[in-house]
Amino acid sequence: MANIDFVTPFYNKSYDTSGLLEALSRLTSTEDIAINTVPFGTEDSPLSLFPSIHSKRRDITLICQNEDVFLFKLNYKYSEEGEERSESGKFFVCNYEPFKNVNLAITFEKNTFFRRGLLPIIKSLYPKVHLTFIKHEKLMKLLHAFRERYNSLNLIISRASLKNRFIEKESGSKLVPMVGWPNMELDEALKWADQNDSWFQSIQFRLTEKKTNIAEISFTRQGIVRTNHLYDEVQEFFIKPVCKILFENMEMFGNRSRRDTDSFSARPLAISFSYDQFADPEDNRRFIRVMRHYNKAAVSVLHGNPYIHITISDYFDGSNFDLWMVSPKMITIVPQMKGSVAAIERLVNHIFDSYAEGKIVDYSEVAR
Amino acid sequence: MNSEELMNADIDDFMQTVHAMIGFVNFYLFDGDKWCDREGIKVFQGARLKRFQLNSEGEEQIESDHITPDLCIYLPTKEGVIGEVKRNLPKNRKLWMGAFEQLMKYDNDLLGWPSEDGKVISHDVVLLIHQFRSGPLASFYNDNKDSIVFKKPFAIVGFGRSEDGGKHYYFFKKELGSLSFPYVDKCLDDGVPVPMEILIKKYSTIKLTDDRPPLPYLMYIIWEHVVLPIASENKKFRYLRKKQKIEVLLTIDNIVEVLRKGFSFAVLQSYNDDHQTKTPRRAWVVEACDKFVLGKEAEWVDTKTKNEIKIYFQKYDDTLQHFVKLVTGNIDVDDSQMLLFDI
Questions:
Q1: Fewer CB atoms inside 10 A, N or C side of chain B?
Q2: Which among A53, A11, A25 has a CA at the least distance from the CA of A236?
Q3: Statement: residue A116 has pLDDT above 90
């Protein structure tokens, strides 16, 4: 019996955002495909971003547009085992209402297309396009909420990449990336992470019922989701919360540049911690080491002990920051003349990822 | 300490002094009840004030020379405070009299305040100095009271950093004298720790004062806050590799203006008058640019006028330490062919 072509009719139809997401949900319930979804923030229109990609090795063209939904085709070349190969595929970009400037890039092409073609392009558009970061605590909450929804089923972590804080006698603590195939129940995996001072970078899990796989889902700290079933539920429990975080971060991090104000006044942010992070000089040294590893930036330490004052210049877009640690439970970030949303997000993500996670607040809330 | 360590210590000393000035100014400027700056208070540097007095016929006689105190605070009550900040004192105590002679010049009626008639009803004279030196200086004053006489309220205020429970402060205490503003006088009598975290916005925005900054520090400020923003507008900026450069054309006046408006006391509600000396001084910026040229990081457009400069921006891992090494002679100047991106 000949295979039914569901792909061509799918691409030939015209969708608005909600129509597209519903159609994708139906697709995963009837076909054996996996959908990759990348939430990202941008103030630019997809029309100005994606078709601008034209080079010898990759090329994007617009196929069609309906309201805020765009369908693009990507052709790209890559090298494998010394041979030049080419691949092409299609992807949708749509605005995710009601979150202004939050978009989704979605494809159900092969995973190789996503990994080699689409995702690198989205990342290359940084800082115009920026992904978000999900704190470990939040990631766990999202997983637990999803688990609650399917509490009659088993949720097994099949693969996870983590960062582990490893303590060395001489040089203090080090962050060590790990990839594991734990095949553990969710609670067991979370307990292991807590006990080993680790946090998840990405997590792949399957929902099973009596040894039958219902769905295989993966979710990263940047909010990238892949699933082969239950797209509706994945939207509700993962995609929508990630889009909300993206939006809230853009609101929090936006309009912080000093040049945006008449009097060039500063609008600092603070990261507050629930316990002392800078209790002794070793903590200071560790933090300075972490910041020295901040890539694509100039990092100058003006004062390292007992308080910390560091300046950062972002080499993606020229944003500039002063960082201060003058109390044990807080880092203050002062954007200078230029402090873009993307640069602030990248800086905060680096601190969360490599040092410690805290709560981001406007400086005025903690300055008293 | 080696030359780089000494330079870094000098930069740190300079910044401590800037923080201390900000802290002192805030005793007058900041309303702790409303948690905001008070309206109508003007803080400024580089003021050119002239001494005047009334002659026997009641006519004003204005001296031709002007004085330029480090810091002036003008209060809406038409009173003022003149502050002189000392980073260091000569080792030879006999030379300390020079500091008081300078202060005594401020102990006169002065013209040039931001009031309608350019005058104030009265003003205080304050010497702000690190607490390690404020005690000995106060002793010197007491030992020389015959020679050091102030008609106006005069005080020596010492400052230093302190820490308590992991929180960091600048501590201010009056070593001697009295000030007219009762709240400030009382605070400084007992000594008061000012938490650094409440002044972080000002520490971050006021990076330059009327005191000459260490040369590498000024170079780093110019690089990060004048050159880099322009370089980052170039579409090749994010792809720039080490040793690759982007040409940035600037005038000295432009550099001075960007730094003055964005990184000096001008960012506070302030008094800006054409007669004021601008911070940073043009001569300091020219010196910094001369050093960029010597370090093969720039070229004068016209070596005679030194008005315009082409700076070759490149990315450094640590901009401040790069210029510390350049100034202390601990860096190899790159003579290799520059790789310029087409602009």
A1: N
A2: A25
A3: yes
